[in-house]
């Protein structure tokens, strides 16, 4: 692989990859059942570790009817603990994004997982509402691994498949929110049947997610690579990767308004998902007088829909992106999330168990597809501050969850069914600003590319670098990314502007 004027001995003997790659050595194909290093191995490590963190963070809700009796928790205590579980990751996600930009997703992810694992173990010794709130708060920090997951996929997969990679990795990780609704009641029941009393059995049960989380961190450290060509540290020492400054990464990420809009929007797809994970088991248990295990199974169906819904959102984003470019990605996101809000309103109004289950599943499909669609757009907002933009967006999801639970599900101001209905209204309102996202080289929902001046991908991504930095060659990675992102013009525009002799991605 060579770029004109930049050929080196190292580039004349490029590394071999199992998947076809572009000029950045990012995979241009996504092979789900492959474990080939480094691309697909990174995919499987990222979703499994994120899955483990999701299981740990939401291990408590399916056992709340038991825990609340043991610790004498009030409705406000439970609401506060639910808020604490998602509020911890708000700033952690922004910090994780910056850590990924500076140190790489492998080290950043594994470090956070190991730091938060003790909080999961300590849940077993919680003895009051305060200690229960604290362990849920610190466990919730682990949800910031979502950012490293999305950053890792955006670093490993090229524009044609990055939405799919992000969607499947995020969706399968989010499955932990549904799987834990099944796992924890089963583990609790097994331990109780062996002979432990119920107030002891729920405590022992927490060792299972804690151990799973710990093992996943070591797997990431041992088997993962930050980039297709190696880890950040080695590449920086060899001079193959520039070590950026925090101030530059922060400045170019924070000033990009598109990141703020996506953070707001994500607050009412992923944020709503977190909220539902916290309240849905108790909602069905109390409203329809179900058994604990039955309520857990119904609640699990919401999170388990991630096996197809969020990956489907990512695939749809790539499909419409291939045909209609970035404008297609934005349209698909706005439509899916708005429909999610509509079905959320309906869920809050239906009164029968059967109808509630059906509407909840349809709602989950649109809500989670919107999450995948969001991260079909995020990788293109900024090349230099990709991690920070991912962190801002991911943190927005947690802010949305915190605000929603504070407003609608804390205490007894609203019944849960009315809170769910009002949450649907909020989803629709907070999705509207997507219409304001505009890329001068690609356009937005209502407007095409800028006609007042020639706008190219190079103009957009190289604007993040100063002339002095360009003279030092620090911008070359952004130059490659700009070239590989031309597909976001859409099929027609891209065919009209792409040079005839431009070579496609190759297997190297």
TrEMBL record:
Gene3D superfamilies according to UniProt: MFS general substrate transporter like domains
Biased composition (Basic and acidic residues): 483-501
This protein's UniProt keywords: Membrane, Nitrate assimilation, Transmembrane, Transmembrane helix
Subcellular location: Endomembrane system
GO cellular component: endomembrane system; plasma membrane
Recorded GO MF terms: nitrate transmembrane transporter activity
Region (Disordered): 469-508
Segments forming domain Major facilitator superfamily (MFS) profile: 42-442
InterPro entries xrefs: MFS (IPR011701), MFS_dom (IPR020846), MFS_trans_sf (IPR036259), NO3_transporter (IPR044772)
Mode of membrane association: Multi-pass membrane protein
Transmembrane stretches, start-end: 47-66, 107-126, 133-152, 172-192, 204-224, 292-309, 330-351, 357-381, 388-408, 420-439
Gene Ontology BP terms: nitrate assimilation; nitrate transmembrane transport
Pfam families: MFS_1 (PF07690)
Family, per entry: Belongs to the major facilitator superfamily. Nitrate/nitrite porter (TC 2.A.1.8) family.
Protein name: Major facilitator superfamily (MFS) profile domain-containing protein
Protein species of origin: Populus trichocarpa
